[in-house]
Amino acid sequence: MTVRPTRSHLAAAVALSVLAALAVVGSPVTAGPSPTALAVVGSPATAGPSPTALAVVGSPATAGPSPTALAVVGGPAAHGPSARAASLPLAGMVVGIDPGHNGRNYSDPGYIDQPIWNGREQEACDTTGTETDGGYTEAQFNFNVASYLAGDLRAEGATVVLTRTSNSGVGPCVTARSQIIDRAHANVAIDIHADGGPPDGRGFAILEPVADGPNDRVIGASKAFGRMLLERYHDLTGMPVSDYDGTDGISDRDNLAGLNLTTVPKVLIECGNMRNSTDAALLTRPSFQRLAARAFAQAITSYLHA
Ligand SMILES: [Zn+2]
User: Fold this and answer.
1) Active site includes 156?
2) Cα 101–133–279 angle (5° rounding)?
3) What is the pLDDT of residue 202?
4) 260: alpha, beta or left? (left if phi > 0; alpha if psi -120 to 50)
5) Strand ranges in 103-198 using DSSP code E only, listed in sequence order
């Protein structure tokens, strides 16, 4: 079936292209020293990436940029990022984050219901996602965790590519989400979701790709990342593995565009069951969401350093 692009579809596609471009602007890889990199030139090599460390730059205590640092400021891009930026654990790495669904998907069924080709069969462009019995939406949860994760990863020096940058829009389709991350040549990527399972079922599951052509070369790497993610998420958050989805927390899935079409190592995590009251109480808690993001960041860092 041919899908005629709608005006909103095209507008969304254009907006996404811009967002994707913006997402990589400022990366040390593509644009030389970013304002952030310049700001930290001359700071102590041991300082962390906190605002406090940034505030130290140029203060009397550090005596300002040294002659060596001045030679780097404004110098040709070939000089690359500062030694300190390069020393961050994820310097030079690109990480894709796909926060599932979007906060206003419900408002445009004509857009999100359109059929797309997921690599094996047709599925809907997107869905609204689930929500807790109290009305806390999965789209909000996914976006919150993604935002915390993006902050954690950037603090470690990574370039982050997000498939959406707000929770107040529609889409993009799952195919476009996969393409954004593929085209960014992410070193690793994560699709963040929470499930709408049976009310008496608990726990998280990691959904992993099944070889289908486009993703053939990243199956092993995705599974390796999935193992690290399972361990870190379980250890840090205490969320049990799912008692109704997959086996020991792992579920191979061949019916999702995000996994079928990926050309970079990627898994999808269902962080818990929003329809279960115990899981829902955890998932809706900001402290839990921050912890989930921290677990993801640790798994990503472990994977990229393995
Ligand atoms: Zn979902």
Assistant:
1) no
2) 80
3) 98
4) alpha
5) 115-117, 122-124, 159-162, 188-195
Query: CA Rg, the chain, in Å?
Result: 20
Other C-beta atoms closer than 10 Å to the C-beta of 274 total: 26
pLDDT of residue 81: 54
192 CA → ligand 1 middle, Å: 8
Task: Tell me phi and psi for residue 159, to 5 degrees.
Answer: -90, 125
CA of 193 to the centre of ligand 1 (A): 4
Question: What is the arithmetic mean of pLDDT over 146-151?
Answer: 98
C-alpha of residue 24 to centroid of ligand 1, in Å: 26
Q: Which of 123, 138, 208, 270 is catalytic?
A: 270
Please give the distance, rounded to the nearest whole angstrom, from the Cα atom of residue 22 to the centre of ligand 1.
Answer: 26
Provide long-range contacts, Cβ within 8 A and 24+ apart, for 1-5. Answer: 1/115, 1/122, 3/114, 3/115, 3/116
Q: What is the DSSP string of 187-248?
A: SEEEEEEEE---TT---BEEEEE---STTGGGHHHHHHHHHHHHHHHHHHH-PPBPSSSSBT
Per-residue confidence band for 137, with pLDDT thresholds at 50, 70 and 90: very high
